[in-house]
Amino acid sequence: MILMLLGPPGAGKGTQSQLISERLGLPQLSTGDMLRAAVKAGSPVGLKAKKVMADGGLVSDEIVIGIIADRISEPDCAKGFILDGFPRTLAQADALDDLLKSKGRHIDCVIELKVDDTKLVERIECRARETIAAGGTVRADDNPEALKTRLIAYYRETAPLIGFYYAHRLLKTVNGMTPISDVSRQIDDVLNQFQHA
Ligand code: AMP
Questions:
Q1: Do residues 2 and 106 lie in contact, with contact meaning Cβ atoms separated by under 8 Å?
Q2: How far does the centroid of ligand 1 lie from the alpha carbon of residue 58, in Å?
Q3: Which of 6, 50, 53, 152 to mutate for ligand 1's pocket (most ligand atoms within 8 Å of CB)?
Q4: Protein residue whose Cα sits closest to atom 2 of ligand 1
Q5: Helices (H), the chain
Q6: How many Å apart are CA 104 and CA 176, to the nearest integer?
Q7: Which ligand 1 atom is at minimum distance from the Cα of 53?
């Protein structure tokens, strides 16, 4: 099964993808995590992505499409995977369709996590505070300026994907404002209906 989580920054895509990944035994493919690893490793991709990411902008389609193309060709993706943070532009969505088609595969379900903007800002500020309290390193893009840029990028580039996947009859919307366990239950309901369809 190929699943995708769609939603603005701070909607809980990472948390929910991880839970689905554990439940279904499918790998979670987070382009954000892969890019952060590339930045940390100082690889050529990381060097190109570092500043754009810290500023809250989008890394080029070419780079992220390349990363995903390589990743989904790995053996652990053979039985399916969960896309977390990819695609983020219509060009990425088109490239993903082409990639999957070339392998005789397709997206099974796109889950939209719907959250209020005020809640997003609160969540991201809270994530930064909790990380500091735990002695961790706050994400370079978890600050008010970068968050504004990330939200603008989301509404400008990524939000159109909701209509795109709705039109493809793949979109299922869940309320992302409820506690983590409840969002997870809503996603289970979607996946159950889906598996019994
Ligand atoms: P995330 O962890 O999903 O919030 O991603 C962190 C940052 O990585 C984003 O703000 C972007 O700068 C970059 N990024 C992650 N995924 C993508 C993508 N699909 N397209 C472009 N940039 C991305």
A1: yes
A2: 6
A3: 53
A4: 32
A5: 13-24, 31-41, 44-55, 61-71, 90-102, 117-133, 144-153, 160-167, 180-196
A6: 32
A7: 12
Report the distance separating Cα 141 and Cα 155, nearest Å. Answer: 17
Q: To test the ligand 1 pocket, which listed residue (5, 36, 59) has its Cβ within 8 A of the most ligand atoms?
A: 59
CA–CA gap between residue 47 and residue 22 (Å, rounded): 32
Q: What is the pLDDT of residues 19-62, one digit of tens each?
A: 999 999 999 999 999 999 999 999 999 999 999 999 999 999 99
Residue 115 contacts residue 8 (beta carbons within 8 Å): yes
User: Ligand 1 centre and the CA of 47: distance in Å?
Assistant: 15
Which residues are within 8 A (CB) of 28 and not within 5 positions of it... i.e. 6 or more apart?
A: 17, 18, 20, 21, 81, 82, 84
pTM score over 0.85 = yes
